[in-house]
Every structure is written in C-alpha cells, then in structure tokens.
Design brief:
Length: 208
C-alpha cells in the first residue's frame, strides 16, 4: 500500500491508551526494534473482535511485549481471561510493566516457555486465538490449536504475507506460512478471509 495511505489509515484509527503507548516506547528504547509489535490497526481490530463477539476466553500464541494482549484485555467482558504464551523473559518484562500500569494484570495469564510445547498442554477451549509466533511452525500450530477453538470461534493469524515471501517461497518460513494459508483456505471447517493490513492478517471462523 502507498505509504501515505498507510499513514492516513493509522491516523484514522482510534487512539491508543497510555499503557499501550508505553509498550511502543519501551519496546523501541529497550529492544531497539519495534517492527514485531502488532501495531495500532491490528490491536484495534482485535479489540473490536473481542467486543463484537463477546469473547471471554482468549489465547495468544507469541505475546512479544504485550501490545495485542493489552489491546484485548482492555475490553474483556467481566470474568474474561487471556492466556498468553511467551518464551522471552525480556519481552515479558516490558509486557508485565504495562499490564500493571493498566491495572489488568489479573486478567492475563502468561505461560513462560516454548509455545510449541505449551500448546500441547492446553486443556481449555477458546473463543478467540491470536497466532503470532514462530512462522516456521505455523502449520503445526494450526493442527494443535484447531481442537482448542470453540465452534464459532475466531482464529486470527498475523504475518501471513511474510514480507512477500509467500509469493516466492524461497525459505523455510515463507514455505511454512504459505502452507498454513493453504490449509486454512481448504479446510471445510474454517471460513477464512485474508486482509492486506501491514504484513497480512487472516481471520478464520470455525464453523462447527
């Protein structure tokens, strides 16, 4: 998309909370990179999904510094809970400070460890699952997570373009992301739309 249109779209997306702004600032300053953040457009879209579907049980696979996590936690219904899987303790530290600042730490359960292993140990079912973890493992994540998604639930997957790599498929991550894209498209249990927001975002609804 034209960069001016990208900026225009951002300017016409609802403002972030102070705690979300903290995550953006701390991520840039303490990690020296913030390109892995979900960003305001995707964060706000996730918020709208939570509000319109009244999702109360949410799973996030790959939390990073907690931008998407907090975006959803801020609009959780009473009694709602987010389970977030993250392996990097430095990322977790920034996220936990923001959750504390927002007064929402009690709504978020962070499971520290390898997300691939943590996924296999999950027992609960979820209204919404946000997948933004190791791209090379995307197909396996879908196999593990589909049984954990409630009928009518949403699976939201980030980076489904992998910076354009899905067109050439010249590396393992690009091949894996493309494989997941094909799996979702051809799964009769899933109704899927792919959006060209940032690095590509897929929303899939489990039919039954």
């Amino acid at each position: 998309m034209n960069k001016q249109l990208q900026e225009y779209a951002k300017q016409h997306t609802s403002e972030e909370s102070e705690a979300l702004k903290f995550i953006v600032k701390a991520t840039a300053e303490e990690l020296q990179y913030d390109d892995m953040l979900s960003g305001r457009q995707i964060g706000t879209l996730l918020r709208l999904f939570v509000q319109t579907s009244n999702a109360s049980q949410i799973l996030e696979v790959g939390m990073f510094t907690g931008y998407a996590t907090l975006s959803m936690a801020e609009v959780l219904p009473e009694g709602g809970r987010i389970t977030a899987l993250e392996m990097n303790t430095l990322y977790m530290g920034i996220a936990e400070r923001a959750f504390e600042m927002a007064g929402l730490k009690d709504r978020i359960n962070i499971i520290h460890g390898n997300a691939r292993e943590s996924c296999k140990e999950l027992k609960d079912s979820y209204d919404l699952i946000f997948l933004d973890a190791d791209k090379q493992q995307y197909p396996q994540y879908f196999k593990d997570l589909k049984p954990r998604l409630k009928p009518g639930g949403l699976l939201v997957v980030d980076n489904v373009f992998w910076y354009g790599g899905v067109l050439e498929k010249n590396d393992r991550k690009s091949i894996a992301v493309h494989e997941l894209n094909e799996m979702l498209l051809n799964d009769p249990d899933m109704e899927t739309v792919m959006l060209d927001i940032r690095d590509g975002l897929t929303i899939s609804r489990k039919r039954k």
